[in-house]
Amino acid sequence: MGNCCSDVGGGMTAVGGTAASASASGDNQNDAIDAYLKSRGIHGLFSQIELSFSATNLRDRDVFSKSDPMVVVYIKEKDGAITEVFRTEVVLNSLNPTWITKYTITYHFEVVQTLLFHVFDVDTQFHNVEVKMLKLEEQQSLGEASCALSQILTKPNRSLTLDLVRREEPVTSHSQHSGKLTVHAEELFSSRTTAEMTLKCTDLESKDLFSKSDPFLVISKLVESGISIPVCKTEVLKNDLNPIWKPVFLNIQQIGAKDSPLVIECFNFNSNGKHDLIGKAQKSLADLEKLHSGGEGEHLFVPTLVGHDLQNKTLKSRLFVDKYSETVQHTFLDYLAAGFELNFMVAIDFTASNGNPRLPDSLHYIDPSGRPNAYQKAIYEVGEVLQFYDADKRFPAWGFGARPIDGPVSHCFNLNGSSNYCEVEGIRGIMMAYTSALFNVSLAGPTLFGHVINRAALIASQSLADDAPKYYVLLIITDGVVTDLQETKDALVKASDLPLSILIVGVGGADFKEMEILDADKGERLESSTGRVASRDIVQFVPFRDVQSGEISIVQSLLAELPTQFLTYMRSRDIKPSS
What we know:
Oligomer: single chain
Strand content: 25-35%
Shape: flat
CATH topology of the largest domain: Rossmann fold
Organism: Corchorus olitorius
CATH superfamily of the largest domain: von Willebrand factor, type A domain
CATH architecture of the largest domain: 3-Layer(aba) Sandwich
Subcellular location: Cell membrane
GO molecular function: calcium-dependent phospholipid binding; metal ion binding
Distance between the termini: 42 Å
Helix content: 10-25%
Membrane topology: Lipid-anchor
Number of helices: 14
Largest sheet: 7 strands, mixed
Family: Belongs to the copine family.
Number of strands: 25
């Protein structure tokens, strides 16, 4: 198991457990989170996508025959750099080709993945040359097109048809006659079936000198080379020789097939990372299902050296499968294909601590050179990703902590200045409303989140009542620690039952330690003033300065949990994507 940890708490967390003091305060920390989510089929952050290509009405560039087209795919980076990543085969004599070769790409939700498609007519003299060896400058361009990968995936049938244009021709010339390219996406999943099991052991050997063992299980799949690859872990149970662990979830695709061999190892946790093997068993998922239906236990064994031979010594300890069930787990992309949307909302901090917007040291300063301030950066980078998942691109936008002209301090006012509606058109609309508001309100205070969270929750609850296939994402950008901490907790606990996630960006130099309390990743599950505990984690917080100069962008830090929060909500309410 090999991971060295400096303390018992850290070590137990590394294998999915917690120290005694942590487990006493809440069980939600006592999971092997990464393994748990992945084994449940929650692949929200990334999925393998297969792209296939077809075209219609291509330009005919050959004199005595039709064009011989090939598609070349490029990735366009954020800095504008273009990298070739794929080529199809050449289809001979066709102006309406369907290419057989597929391009596989990893989809990352939190990144805008811009693709460039260039169709070439391959000259006859090169037909015997491998496509990867072709010099593109020697081929004729039939046209090109570009899009974000998310634009394809959000189409109901995951197909997007693009107009091909030729850069060397003006748009008013023949570019409109260059044909169309259709890109179709398929998510590569051999199985969406997930097995849920409750495992227990009896009569485990005590490996500790002054106490009982602290057991946990590791489930691994065996590959052809005989190597075992871990796919799932349980939590650590302290001082227990007859442990019953929380349910584990295994995706059939993860392990290959239901009859693929699995190794179930029981370890005694040690804080130095050198965990003692108590015993193990080798069974397939089908075998484990039979153990459950028969109510029988499987004896554990340990490899033992007898002379020069390694033999398996059978132990008194046994493994039981208390519960076994199989369910179909839909993916994030399944919901998108069924028409579900992510609706973006934004709330901006206009408290006086931001500084006078007319002075360069203000966090709200609008630089005449066009250099965006931290608020503008956060709006653009988060909105740039989320806009593709919102069909009408009309975004509710609010401000808080300011005094509108001739009015009292407001902790939730419409950014566009309207008293009737809060929506603006697109990311550009948010930017314009933000700039305008800076000159039409007086910065005040204090920093209160409760009002904007309740406003967003009202929209989400109305959508839920209408049975709309929508999930809402509220971005709050603030320069200070929230003043109404308990009221904010109350609002968040109430909102945890709604189709809503909240992303909080902290800008400026304030100490945001208290803000991390709102993010359950960094603390215990939120509790309201009445003692009610949040049904799920809906908050992701990041201080802007932490990621400004690093490799991880603000967008990736903020959006990393969003697909998982979406899926957790849908599955907790048993909402399935319609086929």
